[in-house]
Write a structure and sequence with these properties.
This protein is mostly helical. Helices cover about 75% and strands about 0% of the residues. The protein is built from five helices and no strands. This is PA2169 family four-helix-bundle protein.
């Protein structure tokens, strides 16, 4: 295997792990929302977990295409997506605003990881680079949606 392919596989597996983290985080967030009036937020979180399942599948296929072994776990260092571990604590008080803030932070970290992946000085096969760019755009859209919800909740809280 060429050195460039090994680097590509390592970078792709980092993104696979981030998507595992994202799935785990949103599933935990869904589980922890007890207020039935928050069905819309649960739906958004469900959509984002599904989005990461799709991303994970695409990235896994890219790793296999390059001859690598796809990651099957979450990040171990925790420096990219540790925020998800705090979600349960946040929901202890059923604070939807705080959960949205944590989710936005997680989305920031995911976007940062995709940006870093694309900025690496490696020769990306065009089809794989397009997958990463498409997924990054999708994550940016999700980030913006979470941010809008966060802003709406923050404004509603101020008016009470």
């Amino acid at each position: 295997m060429k050195a460039n392919d090994e680097r590509l596989i390592a970078i792709l597996n980092d993104l696979v792990r981030i998507n595992y983290d994202r799935i785990e985080g949103y599933e935990k967030a869904i589980e922890e929302i007890k207020d039935f009036s928050e069905v819309e937020i649960k739906g958004v979180f469900l959509k984002m977990a599904e989005e990461s399942r799709k991303h994970r599948t695409e990235l896994t296929q890219a790793v296999v295409q390059l001859g690598g072994e796809p990651a099957t776990d979450t990040t171990t260092a925790g420096d990219i997506y540790r925020v998800w571990m705090d979600v349960k604590t946040t929901f202890a008080g059923n604070d939807v605003l705080a959960s949205l803030q944590l989710c936005e932070y997680g989305e920031d970290k995911a976007l940062e990881a995709y940006k870093t992946a694309l900025a690496n000085d490696v020769a990306w096969p065009t089809d794989i680079r397009l997958i990463i760019e498409k997924e990054r755009a999708s994550l940016k859209s999700s980030h913006d949606r979470i941010k809008r919800y966060r802003d709406d909740y923050a404004n509603a809280e101020k008016s009470h």
